[in-house]
């Protein structure tokens, strides 16, 4: 059995929680030894998260994890993604936005009620037919960039520029060296 790994909250250094700041695009490529018997993705954020796996959005939630008292609890979404994992190269990715934790909230128009910047957390548990398990987690090896989602405020709306959307950023084989 591989060594147990713990997920960590990740926040790109360029994500400063400024007004009008672009959403962060996170990704982590991994290799599955074979098609797993079971695969479970858990994700949450201090802010908003839209998880992706191998080129498509996971789940049907919007504005996840939803408003919460961030200092006391975070809502973690859990999805069975067994049918999305292939033997070989795979990618877990996410779009990370400011949400209620960082963005403008309340009648005074103040920001940063719960955090100075957004952060994402994910954990993908793979269970194989032979009983072995593997975990792919958010950690310092998670890469980050920006894409087509620009300003992304709960109250002030979202801007999107398709010209800035990196083609294939959430699929295996994408060059994320930049």
Question: Any key phrases for this structure?
Answer:
mainly beta, five-stranded antiparallel β-sheet, four-stranded antiparallel β-sheet
What fraction of residues sit in β-strands?
35-45%
Lateral strand order in the biggest sheet: 4-3-6-1-9
Q: Work out the helix count.
A: 1
- The overall strand count is 11
Low-confidence stretches: none
Rg over CA atoms, rounded to whole Å, is 16 Å
Helix content: under 10%
Q: What's the N-to-C terminus distance? A: 33 Å
Shape: globular
Derived structural class: mainly beta
> Mean pLDDT score, rounded?
94
Largest sheet: 5 strands, antiparallel
Helices and strands, in order, run as EEEEEEHEEEEE
What does this molecule look like?
- The protein is an all-beta fold and 178 residues long.
- Helix content is 2%, strand content 38%.
- It is built from 1 helix and 11 strands; from the N terminus they run E-E-E-E-E-E-H-E-E-E-E-E.
- It has one helix at residues 99-102, and strands at residues 24-32, 38-46, 48-53, 56-57, 77-80, 88-97, 119-127, 133-137, 143-146, 149-153, 157-160.
- The protein has a 5-stranded antiparallel beta sheet. Strands 5-2-7-8 form a 4-stranded antiparallel beta sheet.
- Strand 10 and strand 11 form a beta hairpin.
- The radius of gyration is 16 Å and the shape is globular.
